Amino acid sequence: MSASWLAAGGLGLIAIGGLLAAGAPTAADIPAQIAAPGKVEIARLHAEGVQIYECVAGPAGLAWRFREPLATLLQDGKTVGRHFAGPSWELSGDVVVGRVEAQSPGPTAGDIAQLKLAVVRRSGEGSLAQATTIQRLETHGGVFSGICGEPGALHLQPYAAEYVFLRG
C-alpha cells in the first residue's frame, strides 16, 4: 500500500463522510427488497473504511475478487466499534455475524450494494445482543474493477455506509 494511496484514500473518506451528514433515511427511502417491516431499530452506526479485493487466478485469467470489509464504526463522530470479515460487527463487547438475505443496487455504479442481513451468530450482552437483522444503507464507494497482474495482490477501495441494527 503506497503513501499516495493512503493520502488519496483518506481524502476520499473525508469527502464521503461529508456526503453522509445529510441525514438518516426514512422507511420510505429504503428499497423494498431490503426493507424490514415490523422491526425496531436498536442502533444506527456510520462506517468508514475499505472493501478489500484480492487478485486471484480463475478460468478467465486473473481477476479482482471481493475478500472482506474493514471499517471503523462511528456514532456521533466517535469510534465505537469495528466491522470486519464474516461479515461481523463488534461494539461494546458484542459481536454479531450476518448472512446476506437481500440486496439492492447502490445509489451509483461506484457504490456497493445496499443489503439486508440476518444475524446468524452473536455473543455478548450489550446493545447488539437483541439484533436479528442488519441493514447496510446509504453506501458510498467500495466498488472496484481493473487489471490485476499479480495473484495475491490486494486493493483497498474506500467506502462508507450506514449500518442499522434491528430487533423483532
TrEMBL record:
Protein's name in the database: DUF3455 domain-containing protein
Species per Swiss-Prot/TrEMBL record: Hansschlegelia beijingensis
InterPro entries in the record: DUF3455 (IPR021851)
One Pfam family, short name: DUF3455
